[in-house]
Amino acid sequence: MNQDFAKAGTAGPVLGVETSCDETGVAIFDPGGGEGGRGLLAHTLYSQIRMHADYGGVVPELASRDHVRKLLPLVRETLSRAGLTVADLGGVAYTAGPGLVGALLVGATAARSLAWALDVPAIGVHHMEGHLLAPLLEPDPPQPPFVALLVSGGHSMLIEVSAIGRYRLLGDTLDDAAGEAFDKTAKLMDLPYPGGPALARLAEQGRAGAFRFSRPMTDRPGLDFSFSGLKTQVLLAWQASDRSEQTKADVARAFEEAIVETLTIKCRRALAQTGARSLVVAGGVGANRRLRAQLAEAGAREGFRTYFPRLEFCTDNGAMIALAGSLRLSAGQHETPAIKVQPRWDLESLPAA
């Protein structure tokens, strides 16, 4: 990690805990350095995809219960991988929101209790700030100012980043987030859960130009997103088609192209509006191959650089929480002993670090 972002402030490695939805993530980040100079000592992740597949989506109560079962064993495993004991920890970070309230409370309760028992500081991390900062785990991280595109199942937003904790919302989704649109479109075409990755894989077999859907809200000024109408277009096209396997792939490709081109157009607008020449793309949809390729191509043509986390850190994970928490603990921020979570939390309300 670039040391411009971190100042020594914690007494040792920081344990990060992520339980905002259906993945239990644990990691240990050492602000003093670590493997590859990135400070990340170890990370583990358990996904509940198989459990929720039977229901076609995340069941909040089941997610909470599974976090209870998996969290402490993952903490022990992560400490073992890092060659540490709990006594070596200098702080604890956990996702405090946004997310499912029951799932958040599992992680917050365990993390806050551990910090209290060890007499080390604890910090609640904003889940989307974790995603936004995930590219800082890479050997060549971005430096502010930059624009961040945060795209996942629950969020599609463009953020102007002038410093850590200094965020300005440029555009947000008015209805479905990009990842949510992927999942819902996959479901209407009877693709397996989780739908977004399944649709992206199917799109690779589609024929270019067989279908074309609109690029929502790109024909007007502004940086907001809206994908519900696109989903309706796909439904009507699919219902009117022969519903063959090739047609399904063709529709998937046209849908993915519409999402990717829409996101690319809005990113280019945001960069032009702010004057930034660096773009960070994070969140689950940031793993999409077509999106990565199109933004890299646009950047090479127009003179901006795009930063992505590695694929394993695009989806929810403990490493991004450990990193974000370490930065805020290093800035002297910490929580009171009370256990608090915020299922809804405005990113712009965060204090500077």
Automatic annotation (TrEMBL):
The keyword Translocase does not apply. It is found in: Cytoplasm. The gene is tsaD. NCBIfam families: gcp_kae1, T6A_TsaD_YgjD. Signal peptide: none annotated. Belongs to the KAE1 / TsaD family. Coiled coil: none annotated. This is tRNA N6-adenosine threonylcarbamoyltransferase. Required for the formation of a threonylcarbamoyl group on adenosine at position 37 (t(6)A37) in tRNAs that read codons beginning with adenine. Is involved in the transfer of the threonylcarbamoyl moiety of threonylcarbamoyl-AMP (TC-AMP) to the N6 group of A37, together with TsaE and TsaB. TsaD likely plays a direct catalytic role in this reaction. Gene3D superfamilies: 3.30.420.40. Its EC number is 2.3.1.234. The lineage of its organism: Bacteria, Pseudomonadati, Pseudomonadota, Gammaproteobacteria, Lysobacterales. It catalyses: L-threonylcarbamoyladenylate + adenosine(37) in tRNA = N(6)-L-threonylcarbamoyladenosine(37) in tRNA + AMP + H(+). Binds 1 Fe(2+) ion per subunit. GO terms for molecular function: tRNA N(6)-L-threonylcarbamoyladenine synthase activity.
